[in-house]
Amino acid sequence: MCGIVGAVGNSPVNQLLYDALLLLQHRGQDAAGIATMNGSSFSMHKANGMVRDVFRTRNMRSLPGNAGIGQVRYPTAGSASSEEEAQPFYVNAPFGIILAHNGNLTNAQSLRDEMFYRDRRHINTNSDTEVLLNVLADELQRATNSIALDAASAFAAVTKVQERLKGSYAVVSLIAGYGLLAFRDPFGIRPLCIGRLDTANGPEWMIASESVTLEGLGFKFVRDVAPGEAIFISQDGQFQSKLCNPNAKLNPCIFEYVYLARPDSCIDGVTVYDVRLLMGNYLAQKIAREMDVSQIDVVMPIPDSSRPAAMQVAKLLGVPYREGFFKNRYVGRTFIMPGQAMRTSQHKAKFIPAPTAAPLTAAIVGNAERAMRKKPS
Q1: Are residues 168 and 296 in the same domain?
Q2: What backbone torsions phi and psi does residue 195 show, to the nearest 5 degrees?
Q3: Which of 52, 105, 328, 333 is deepest in the core (most CB within 10 A)?
Q4: For residue 358, how far is the Cα from the chain centroid?
Q5: CA distance 313 to 287
Q6: CATH number of the domain that 49 lies in?
Q7: Quick one: 78 and 128 in the same domain?
Q8: Interval 75-108: pLDDT, tens
Q9: Of 7, 4, 99, 2, residue with least CA distance to 44
Q10: Residue 172: in which H helix or E strand, if any?
Q11: In the prediction, which pLDDT does 77 show?
């Protein structure tokens, strides 16, 4: 579960990609990477750490070009500590391809063996993203009969890729000298959406994991990438798309709505915040059926993503809503920290239980009222 972004603009996109990754930081904290394309040349910088720590001014200056991709990583395959597994990944043939991926391939090992024994391709890391990149490279090689590439050949390659891959994947990639290729698995398990910004020099495009990224950077949300769909955007901003799997059917990951995505994002036509409110409605109905509501003292949200649901439960059951834990905002998302030991230790610093309230004596009430009336110095 990572965050990915791709952009094709009319001016350098390095700062745009950096800002987009900041808006996607909640999806991954272990590593960050940006790759840009200037003509047919790639530039890339990636490392372990948060976005603000990975990219310094000197790194941003080394990323020229009007097209690029980026990723923030939460490792669900491979090694969390290996900087070699930070994304994007690069392969030099055919054409030159750089790719970033959000998801998990369930048949990564069999594909790895296939890459070696059938295609004579070497996979250097334990990351399933490198496997996916080499499958795409192999199919692009088969789909093109010359040194040139067009959108039809790219879509034919994606069709074959989707036949070979099993699991979840939302992908952004750059093909040297041609443009940006993005696609989503036939079940639409991982989110991916399209944004457009009209400028005096023509449209600029952005593909990102969440709509909040587009809107936060001034892009107009166009639509979600459909399950099984591929998008090709040329370097001059020509947009083309094709449904590469006629049997595609939307079956998104519920964890996006429950916890991972930001509440102000819209995924597959539904606002995450509204889904969480609806979950609260369903939970309240279940509690009312199975419990004695009079025995419930308060409803408390833990963690923040449960707040809309908790508010609905409290409202529908007529039970007081209270904050039971106070959050240290300077500790990152603990569920995506590498290793249970680190997650456990950070929980102690992140969530502080609310102190037990003392009885409201006349003296305490009087002191509180005087403090509220006192003007700040």
Answers
A1: no
A2: -130, 150
A3: 105
A4: 44
A5: 9
A6: 3.60.20.10
A7: yes
A8: 665 455 568 889 999 999 999 999 999 999 999 9
A9: 99
A10: strand 167-175
A11: 53
Q: Which of 2, 193, 244, 253 is catalytic?
A: 2
156 shares its domain with 272: no
Does residue 100 contact residue 132 with C-beta atoms inside 8 Å? no
Give the chain's end-to-end CA distance (angstroms, integer).
48
- Mapped onto helix, strand or coil, the DSSP state of residue 24 is coil
The closest alpha carbon to 301, from 317, 314, 292, 289, belongs to 314
Tell me which residues of the chain have a pLDDT lower than 70.
75-82, 328-351, 356-365, 375-377
pTM of the model: 0.88
Does 284 lie in the same domain as 240? no
**Number of domains composing the chain:** 2
Q: H helices within 148-226, ranges in order?
A: 151-164, 211-216
pLDDT tens string 279-297: 999 999 999 999 999 999 9
Show the domain range for 48: 3-261
Q: Are residues 53 and 139 in the same domain?
A: yes
Question: How far, in Å, CA of 267 to CA of 3, rounded?
Answer: 14
Distances (CA, A) of 287 to 136, 292, 293, 311, 321: 48, 8, 7, 14, 15
Q: Is 244 a catalytic residue?
A: no
Q: Which residue has the tokens 């097209």?
A: 67
171 and 116 in a common domain: yes
CA pair distance 258, 264, nearest whole angstrom? 13
